[in-house]
Every structure is written in C-alpha cells, then in structure tokens.
Amino acid sequence: MNILIVEDEKTLALEMAKFLGREGYTIEHAWKKASASEKIFVNAYDFILLDLGLPGGDGFDLLHQLKEIPGREDAVIILTARGDVDDRIKGLEAGADDYLAKPFSLTELLARMHAIIRRKHKLERNEVNVHKFILDIKNHMLCFNGERINLTNKEFEIFNYLVLNKNRVISRINLTEHVWGDILEINSDSNFVDVHVKNLRKKLSVYAKIDWFETVRSIGYRINF
Questions:
Q1: pTM of the predicted model, to two decimals?
Q2: Which of 35, 55, 102, 200 could form a disulfide with 155 if both were Cys (CB 3.0 to 4.6 A apart)?
C-alpha cells in the first residue's frame, strides 16, 4: 500500500517511514504544504498521514483540497501536537478517518491503520479467506492450508490490493499507483505489472486452481469471491 507522510518534523517522518517500510508499505514524503498539495493532486494514496502545522500553510487546507477531488478514497490520519478537542472535531468533520496526538506510538499508528482498513473494506478481522487462501493483512503473509507462500513484497501487495477491492476490475495504472507509488516516475509502456502478476499466479497455482483470478483484457485484473 502507498502512504504519503506529510510532516515537517523530519526525524519523526523518517522514523515513521522506516517503521512502515519494514511493514511492507511504499512511502512518499512531503515536508511542506506546497509539495504535499502537488503530490495529492497527481497521486492517490491508501493512507495520508497528515500533520496540521506545516511550512507554507495548514494541514486542514490540504484535507479540504483532497475531499474536493472526485472519487478519491485516501484514508487520512491527522498527526499533530495540537491536543485541543475543537481541532480533533474539526479534522474528523472535514473528513479525516482518525486523529493521533503527538507523541504517539508507532505500533498504535499501525493498529489504527489496520482498523481503518477493516472498517473501509467491511472486514471483521485482519484475515481474509480467499478460496482457501488466507490473506493475513496484519502480518503481511499469505497461507494455504497452514503453509506460508513465499511471495515477494510486491506480489503480496498486488494480491492484497486486489483482494481488498474484490469483484472490482482494477486497472494496471491504479494497481501501479497503489503498489509502486508515484506514477510520474514509472514508464507507462512497461509491462512490469504483468510480469509480477504472472509470477504471483504461478506461485498460487501450485496450491489450487485460480480461475477466480481474472485478467480483464486491455484493462487490468479482478479477484472474484
């Protein structure tokens, strides 16, 4: 999953990036309001971790900007030293999904992210049964009959993203954006997404038939269950 950290405290931002990177997330940074605004306009994110006090402007402005873009579903967690209740209410009413006051535990941040994923995708827990394959979102692994399948990080993220958007056709561009990050840095003519999907399918097909893992010609992929 793709995360944008909008935080001008570089030590904190780098700590979050290192921690979440180890959890398998793709990380982008923005230190100032202007650069964050540009990134939000160009790319969609699974999570935006948003500080309110930024050089060049207020995080609330970015939140309002995001919510004005049609079709955007980025989950937003506000991270701020502001402990005032009115600020918390203002952020949640503006469309933020959660609020963490500094200082906070990185493990609590991750737990809140998992809770948002469950809520957003109507999951009762962090495990999803996909035709007897068990996707463990929290522990970042995929198993079949108790055996862990050896996936690369990108293969796991592809499967994870398609499962969370089950029964929906996900375009190659959309998949690239959420798994690899900034689409401006990626060659649109490259077939690397197809190569990763091919390798993922090959690994899954060792365990069972995967006719539910569908290629939608000229568009992308869909997992049905």
A1: 0.82
A2: 200
